[in-house]
């Protein structure tokens, strides 16, 4: 704008110069000679006579010269006005074009900004997000959307620690606010190396192929330089591990709600083992990988170690898992089957019953698994009520307690062939869960409450 102002000033100066009286004409006009002194009428000085006659004789010529010079001045002023007007018109035209260009550009920029700010209302990720809207994606891998990194930064407030939901072996999970109606969980994978990369790719590949009410939904992924990010549906009540072994040291989960969680996990595993084609083995079932939504519906998460294709052996895959949940045959011989997931489910069931961790330290250099500790007491009906989690002790029908304990004992059998199929476990739990929570049990008392 400063340059335009200087240009206008330089264009208008010639008009002012040519129209100023001090620059009207470069004429050198002599003034009329003074009149003769009336007191000396008879003076005969030849000098005066000569000059007087000359002035009288040439005065018409001087007047004529003055007229000619004024005509030239008018022409110059006219030319200057024409040129300046043309320049001014050109400048106005240029300004108009520039203003129109800026207006169009601003409209485009505003439209683009509006798209970015409403990114969460863009392309849909699928039916599971219909009630929330959707996130804007720039591409897709399978049925999972590729999310833009700036969107994740904005949604997590640059991965602020205040938004941290949890932390695992590979990284942290952050709460992401995409808009007022839709929140999600973003896992930032901090660990590097081939193993982390392999688990990231495995998670994206497998969760893009499956969808079930008891399997957490992967909404998107992001690859930004060396960073890897996974975006999941928000599970408002966190992990089962937090509720059983969290800082409060006393779970608020009621008996019926614990049975509902066990039923949901069984349904999720039954889907992986029996309905996926090819079948899928999760390989990392544990309380921290069982997430709870706002209604305490349980969903399986973390499929980084999962494999498809059914049974395997130690020559095919690397030994992986979490201590306390790994089946003995897999730990000792590398033999992996769907019964390995059943064993881990049995450990989770013991956690729900007793409120103990899968492995606890009993001495400075000695640890004891929940299976080793509980097995002798699970089959003794006189001891069983005393080892139940104090938070739910005496809140259930003893007959149901004995049934659940029997299921747990079968699931953690050392010999895989003695363990039941997850389908049988599922059908055993349905009668133990109230109708209102997804089972077939009809109850009328106050024990149905979801929280103690």
TrEMBL record:
Domain of life per record: Eukaryota
Transmembrane parts of this sequence: 77-101
UniProt key word Repressor: no
GO function term, MF aspect, one: protein serine/threonine kinase activity
A Pfam entry, by short name: PK_Tyr_Ser-Thr
Alphabetical keyword list: ATP-binding, Kinase, Membrane, Nucleotide-binding, Serine/threonine-protein kinase, Signal, Transferase, Transmembrane, Transmembrane helix
Domain Protein kinase as annotated: residue spans: 159-430
Signal peptide per UniProt: 1-19
Protein known as: Protein kinase domain-containing protein
């Amino acid at each position: 704008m400063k340059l335009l102002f200087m240009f206008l000033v330089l264009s208008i100066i010639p008009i002012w110069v040519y129209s100023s009286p001090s620059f009207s004409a470069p004429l050198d006009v002599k003034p009329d000679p003074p009149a003769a002194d009336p007191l000396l009428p008879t003076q005969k000085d030849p000098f005066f006579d000569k000059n007087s006659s000359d002035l009288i004789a040439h005065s018409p010529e001087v007047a004529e010269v003055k007229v000619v010079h004024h005509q030239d001045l008018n022409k110059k002023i006219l030319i200057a006005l024409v040129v300046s007007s043309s320049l001014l018109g050109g400048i106005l035209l240029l300004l108009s074009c520039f203003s129109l260009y800026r207006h169009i550009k601003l409209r485009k920029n505003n439209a683009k900004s509006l798209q970015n700010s409403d990114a969460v209302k863009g392309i849909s990720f699928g039916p599971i997000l219909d009630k929330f809207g959707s996130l804007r994606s720039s591409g897709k891998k399978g049925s999972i959307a590729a999310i833009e990194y700036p969107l994740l930064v904005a949604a997590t407030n640059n991965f602020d620690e205040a938004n941290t939901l949890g932390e695992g072996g590979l990284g942290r999970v952050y709460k992401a606010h995409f808009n007022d109606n839709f929140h999600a969980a973003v896992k930032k994978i901090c660990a590097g190396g081939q193993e982390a990369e392999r688990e990231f790719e495995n998670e994206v590949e497998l969760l893009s192929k499956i969808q079930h009410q008891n399997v957490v939904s992967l909404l998107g992924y992001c690859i930004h330089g060396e960073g890897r990010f996974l975006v999941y549906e928000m599970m408002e009540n966190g992990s089962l591990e937090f509720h059983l072994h969290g800082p409060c040291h006393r779970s608020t989960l009621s008996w019926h709600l614990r049975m509902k969680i066990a039923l949901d996990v069984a349904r999720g595993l039954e889907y992986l083992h029996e309905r996926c084609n090819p079948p899928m083995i999760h390989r990392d079932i544990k309380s921290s990988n069982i997430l709870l939504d706002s209604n305490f519906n349980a969903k399986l998460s973390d499929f980084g170690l999962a494999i498809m294709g059914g049974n395997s052996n130690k020559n095919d895959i690397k030994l992986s898992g979490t201590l306390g949940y790994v089946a003995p045959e897999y730990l000792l011989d590398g033999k992996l089957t769907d019964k390995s997931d059943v064993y881990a489910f049995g450990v989770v069931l013991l956690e729900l019953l007793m409120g103990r961790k899968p492995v606890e330290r009993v001495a400075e250099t000695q640890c004891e698994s929940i299976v080793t500790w509980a097995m002798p007491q699970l089959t003794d009906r006189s001891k069983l009520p005393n080892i139940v989690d104090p938070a739910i002790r005496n809140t259930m029908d003893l007959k149901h307690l004995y049934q659940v304990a029997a299921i747990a004992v079968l699931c953690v059998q050392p010999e895989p062939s003695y363990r039941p199929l997850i389908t049988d476990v599922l059908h055993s739990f349905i009668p133990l869960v109230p109708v209102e929570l997804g089972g077939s049990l009809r109850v009328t008392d106050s024990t149905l409450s979801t929280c103690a």
